[in-house]
Amino acid sequence: MSTTTPTSRLLMLLLSSAALTACGGGGGGGASAQSSAPAVLATGASAGTDATLAPAAPAPAAEPSSASAPALNATPAQSTPLAASVVDPGTPLPPRKPPVTVAQTGPVVTNVKIQNTTALEQSNVAVTFGQVFAVGDLGAAQTLAGKLADGTAVPLQLDVKARHADGSVRHAIVSASLPRLAAGQNVTLNLEKIDAAAPATATTPAALLQAGFTAAVHADLDGQRYSASADALLRSGKYTSWLAGPVANEWLVSGPLTTAQGTVHPHLTARFAIRGFGTAQARVDVTVENAWAFEPKPQNFLYDAQIMVGGQSVYAKPGLTHLNHARWRKVFWWGAEPAVHIEHNTAYLISTRAVPNYDQSVKFTEGRLADWKAALTPARSEPMAVGLANPYMPTTGGRDDLGIMPGWSATYLLSMDKRLKDVTLATADLAGSWSAHYRDKNTGRPVSLADYPYMTVLGHAPDTANPITKQWEAFPVCATATGCATPNMHDSSHQAGFAYLPYLVTGDYYYLEELQFWAMWNTFSSNPGYREFGKGLFKSDQVRGQAWSMRTLAEAAYISPDTDPLKKQLEGFLQNNIDWYSARYVTGSDNVLGVVSNGYAVEYNNGTGLAPWMDDFFTSAIGHAVELGYTRALPLLKWKATFPISRMTGQNFCWIKAGIYALKVRDTSATPLYATIGQAYAASNTAAENALACNSSAMATSLGLKVGEMTGYAGVHTGYPSNLQPALAYAADVGGSPGSAAWSVFMARTIKPNYGLGPQFAIVPR
């Protein structure tokens, strides 16, 4: 590297995916334990078919097993029933900074801006959005009232979905009808807390149906027309109310695609979310699924798709190949469609800790915002495409879809630009295109280890034999050898955070389930023995796979509605993982470096080195979970904070190389980890490099850098120092004066990335 100029280094980064494997690759690492590529049972396997299966994975090394699962906020020694997510008052988080744009002393909790996106005046404008709240900001006995900047009162409907442990609102869906929006007008709607009135009773869709509402899906397949009718399903009375009140009512219905003669398609189903505003206007949210978990002969299906609303064709897609265990979504309107863009208050969203503390000083150029939108081409937007995500997740290299949230989502959060919202929501819609969606016919929900602790997509069919029920929990074998082929390959180690932010800001049920589908897939995709069966442990995966799985699981547990049976299951899986890591590392561990060493961690340099960047992903995921209120993980975060802090300020470790690709942490694959970070540094560099004074001109010259420039593509927003930043930010929050000192050193470096190109790693301390 000493002869490489910064410009040529950047060119190498762009031309070679192997040049920056930190952000998604593995370099010399082993294959992901949860990649769908080797997942023999990804398309199913049944008892008695193990002759066609791959050899079983080697037995995992002996690891401490977690004991019975105490509550997430309990101390490790306690054993209490699983409760809703709570913040342990004995281990408080750092003080929450108030949002900079909303006064917390009055009745205003936060605000949103509503923009008329047309050149026409609109009246009686229907709006619905999701809103997350900080602990205590909207009390258990309070609701919201709306007020425009000119003092006009706007009645609001609040459908509360989740509450904090103190009973205050965590997440709710807000609906309103604005009396008038002038052409191009942008109004601020203040959300004021008031005493709650009696809850609204759920209404039926009878009036909407009486007004003539109709919607249907058709699929012409093998010479037959299969259909599902939303209005017929509503008339059956078998619906679930998602929103209920005087402003908006939303009903969820589903049914199989069926011929006129009554033949039911065994795999294809339609799911509708019908949101009625009065009787003249309704939002029609349509999802078509090929996702039953245990239906025999899963496969891809080729059909001509059509959606009808109000007797008119609103969408047609001939020759659609619907991939196995995948789904697609489209949204239309019956009656006038409101043309509005809703901007949330970024400062308030960040202050709630529901999203990381992204640097709000990051600036974006008009060109970059336009580029994000332009990248979402029509070809990348159709069913079974994946939007801005990488269709082959295991691809290595610096990527914008990796991080606690993807680059486009973080850009949307910080800019509130409509184009970025469109991109974020569209790519979340298309997260359904991967074959990672397994729905249980018995529950109608994403399949869960709570019901099938032996199911898996990786391993032998005998591994799925449940000794309690005496049933095989293997997924059925694909109908043909090639019938489940897919261009979209998913795994856990390079998995984007697709649906969490979209659900947070919209409250759309599709995004909630998308988040839950991915969280559940991560729990059951590994070999049952490796994950300790129904515990859903991630310990056998690559460290980055453990990181992104913990992120998705924590988010799904945090934001799932309190009445959703999956919530406690998700929290249970999260609790199991936190307890395992705590027992492995925090309680009596001799691992003083603060590095994760289980799974595929120490696999570099003949089993003596690990990837600090991968470890940083894990630290940031744990930091995110702690901020969401899972303070049972706080001791684990404090232990993890040692590693990023010591790479910046540790004795005999030069921070210039804090973003090193692989760090040697032991002498041989059979010896213990080093006792000091200085030993790791000395063993990872040549004698000549170790003789150089840290951050000296001689060191810079030797490495081909500028003084104060870190190695690892310091000027690139997906480089190794960028990967380090979130971990160091969380470490600074919990690391006391050493954490603050380490952050100061990091911020004093001379070469920094332009996070305006992608701010997914632009997280700063609270």
Task: Produce the secondary structure layout.
Blueprint: H1 6-15, E1 108-116, E2 122-132, E3 142-148, E4 153-154, E5 156-163, E6 169-181, E7 186-195, H2 206-210, E8 215-221, E9 224-229, H3 230-235, E10 240-243, E11 249-258, E12 264-276, E13 282-290, E14 301-309, E15 312-322, E16 326-334, E17 340-344, H4 346-351, H5 366-375, H6 407-415, H7 418-429, E18 465-466, E19 471-472, H8 500-506, H9 509-524, H10 543-559, H11 565-586, E20 609-610, H12 612-627, H13 634-649, E21 663-664, H14 677-684, H15 687-690, H16 697-703, H17 720-734, H18 736-747
Antiparallel strand pairs: 1-7, 1-17, 2-6, 3-4, 3-7, 5-6, 8-9, 8-14, 10-11, 11-12, 12-13, 13-16, 14-15, 18-19, 20-21
Outline type: globular
| Oligomer kind | single chain
Portion in helices: 25-40%
Q: Ranges with pLDDT <50 over ≥5 residues?
A: 1-105
Query: Average pLDDT value?
Result: 88
Number of strands: 21
Sheet with the most strands: spatial strand order: 4-3-7-1-17
Report how far the terminal alpha carbons are from each other: 36 Å
- Tally of separate helices: 18
Q: Assess the beta-strand content as a share of residues.
A: 15-25%
Q: Structural class, please?
A: alpha+beta
How does the major sheet shape up? 5 strands, antiparallel
Radius of gyration: 26 Å
Plain-language structure description:
The chain has 766 residues and is an alpha+beta fold. Helices cover 26% and strands 20% of the residues. It contains 18 helices and 21 strands. The chain has a five-stranded antiparallel β-sheet with strand order 4-3-7-1-17. It has a five-stranded antiparallel β-sheet with strand order 10-11-12-13-16. A four-stranded antiparallel β-sheet has the order 9-8-14-15. The longest helix is centred in the last third of the chain and has 22 residues, at 565-586. The two termini are 36 Å apart. Residues 1-105 have low confidence and may be disordered.
